[in-house]
Amino acid sequence: MNIIYTDSLVIGGGLAGLRVAIAAKQRGYESIILSLMPAKRSHSAAAQGGMQASLGACIKGEGDDEDVHFADTVKGSDWGCDQDVARMFVNTAPKAIRQLSAWGVPWSRVRGGDREVVINGEKVTITEKHEAQGLITARDFGGTKKWRTCYTSDGTGHTMLYAMDNKAIQMDIPVHERKEAIALIHEDGVCHGAVVRDLITGELIAYIAKTTTIATGGYGRLYSVSTNAVISEGIGTAIALETGVATLGNMEAVQFHPTAIVPVGILTTEGCRGDGGLLLDKDGYRFMPDYEPDKKELASRDVVSRRMTEHMRKGKGVPSRYGDHLWLDITLLGRAHIEKNLREVKEICEYFLGIDPVKEYIPVRPTQHYSMGGVRTNATGESPTLKGLFSAGEAACWDMHGFNRLGGNSVAETVVAGMLVGEYVADYCAANSLNVSTSTIEHFMKKEEGKISDLLTREYGENPFQLKAEMQKIMMDKVGIFRNGEDLEQAVEELKLLNMRAKKIALRNRISSSNPELVEAIRVPKMIKLAQCVAYGAMLRTESRGAHAREDYPERNDRDWLKRTLTTWKDESADLPEVSYEDLDVMKMEMPPGSRGYGVDNTVHHPDTEKRVTEIEELKKANPTADRHEMQEILNPLDIPEKFKGRNERIGRGYK
Amino acid sequence: MSDEGRILRFQIFRYNPQKKSDKPRMVTYEVTEAPGMTIFIALNDIRENQDPSLQFDFICRAGICGSCGMVINGAPDLACRTLTSKFEDGEITLLPLPGFELIGDLSVNTGKFMRAMSERVKSWIHDLNADEVDYNKLEERMDPDVMDEVYELERCVECGCCISACATKRMRPDFLSAVGFMRLARFYIDPRDKRTDEEFYDIIGDDDGVFGCMTLLGCEDYCPKDLPHQTQIAFLRRKMALIK
Fold this sequence. Notes:
The complex is a heterodimer.
Chain A: E1 2-11, H1 15-26, E2 31-35, E3 51-52, H2 66-76, H3 83-102, E4 113-119, E5 122-128, E6 149-150, H4 156-170, E7 175-177, E8 179-187, E9 190-198, E10 204-214, H5 235-241, E11 248-249, E12 254-261, H6 271-274, E13 278-280, H7 288-291, H8 301-316, E14 326-329, H9 335-341, H10 343-353, E15 362-371, E16 374-376, E17 389-391, E18 396-397, H11 409-431, H12 438-457, H13 464-478, E19 482-483, H14 485-501, H15 516-540, E20 549-550, H16 558-561, E21 563-568, E22 578-583, H17 607-622, H18 628-635
Chain B: E1 7-14, E2 25-32, H1 39-49, E3 69-72, E4 75-78, E5 91-95, E6 102-104, E7 107-108, H2 110-120, H3 144-154, H4 161-164, H5 167-171, H6 177-188, H7 197-204, H8 218-222, H9 229-241
Parallel strand pairs in B: 1-5
Antiparallel strand pairs in B: 1-2, 3-4, 3-5, 6-7
Helix pairs in contact in B: 3-6, 6-9
């Protein structure tokens, strides 16, 4: 039995995983990162538009701070997020971006003086402050009050990932490439590591560690068209589910990005609209102001995606052989801007569409983009039910996004969560010793060996590629942007059947080493289980919140549904997961539920909301001299490591 | 497009070093072309419907991650963004990138090579204070133009096409190659990296470094990201020649 020991095992080599490993190593704990591929190829690299951090250096970011970022994030989540976590996040984001600057990310910088920008379809001149020259600049993004999204052209994820992986190389952190964790090893509510398959030799290896961190990204590939990388299949999330002990949070919260190209679903960044791009219909008409007169194209992602879908349903879509789409017009931004700040978008248009976006409109349609749900953790990033299991980044439901994530908050989450959760991982390593019996390890290794051997010996059975395609189609057709009870019930029933069929997969290529069909056969049953969590959670949630939009329950219902969905799969032979809920406590909210300011406010309010609003008003009156930092301590006291407690400096404002 | 439905003929290199009895060979597969088909789509079609053992690597399938470098009709390129309609006769030959350890079929181990390259050029900001920076304070100011130049050189996706197109690399197994020069140039112009010219010279000032380049410039011709390899190699040579 091949066993590798370490202090901190990290599954996934994207931004979040790398940052957790770096944090643990900085505190003196050995870390090993497992990655399907070289770390620099992780899906983090595909983040284009930027990272939100309230630096407030550019003129349109003036007046920004943690509080404004917090309010945007909570509103964006449709009050579904954990406000303690959102607070930790917004207060730490400026530190994370400044650290990355020191580590080499070439953030685009403020140039003092006049510059021409496009706002609301018009060219206007804005004047950047000379005293801000050389500080990190920012662009506009959807659902934000200020220009807060810091960037390097439209290759932000790439530059962040390269700086982070370079840092890990500098620190001599090993990345074990082409390794896939296929099961977690756990006993009596404690996680001890993972059973890992070498994707080249097929060998199974037990990685044993004090802490195991799942940082494997989202589950976008449950859908047949997704902006996500092809490896974003949610396998890390699924192995947590398969423990029967760890819980998943808000799996039904799935985001659709407004502007992926048709038909292949490759993303064009929100920066296109942030920088002034418009959405047009088949008549060349700019329709968003009719629906959302205030934020127009820059409403929150879930809102824009729904408005686009509504508009196409009215027959205003552009017909094509791949179905209706709309146009993204960035021609008004001009060649110089596009070639400097939207160059990936330009390349994508040239290679995949054969068009020049400087002169032509881009065919776009809302497309699956982000998984708000994932491994449920508490604020420290640890599973509340399985000790020693941590999760960070898109894989986690740390829960700063609730039911809708703001653009620019995902790469920001990866590095901020990586910093914070990494500290708690190190704390756990300090406080606990490794205590696991080899017979436990053997038990889990044997179990996985048995499953693989069944797959390699079964004569007749199901084709894993076909099962996956059927699952993806169900998710596309029935668990999409707009949802309804009838479709969701059908999806749940159809996925149950797929789950049964997935127990009888047979292979055509029966070798245990490097074998893409075997990889698929191991993953597909896990993916189907995740799809069931999404569909079942969506069926049960009879309200609309953020990206979860029920046509049969259009109102946000705080009274009955201000709670987080928790999913477990306790009985391996069950054909459905078990769903329970945890309430969000209105009386502890720094920002009690209110209106997001889109469309008609038809919220069914929670009985505590008014009470909390009054309470906060009284607290404010009772503390008339408290500044915003002191007020936050009163309303939402933070428990974060000492090193992250400092106030953030801003140009022209100091530490206020 | 009028070529919808034509039959594409793929000649694909097949060899699985994990299988003792396996021998390298070319295998032909036919695929019905679909509108907008890329080699990514075609290879998945072959794997799902004809031969589930076919190995290849794709991650982002959008020309961003650099996983899918392969030799396409004689030229190294990113397979994910290569449209099949580009090939008029419908004949497409695919080979794994030379210069890297073969994993199987079209899959090569670029990761091992690139990590070693990063370790060799010490691909990180050298500044003793980088870890001590007070991140509560305003970040160090940077010239906006210099940051744009750094990004220009940092756009490399480590796909390995430059290595496969490099004749010097074929003759000198330890040749650092364009990807390494580009990385070094990126840090050379970054004011945050405090390394001296002499320190850079120690990394690339020999025949396995920038002086070994025969200037055939396959790197410049085949870089999928159109990075300025020619200019950077000339720049580094001039800088290094002035040092010792």
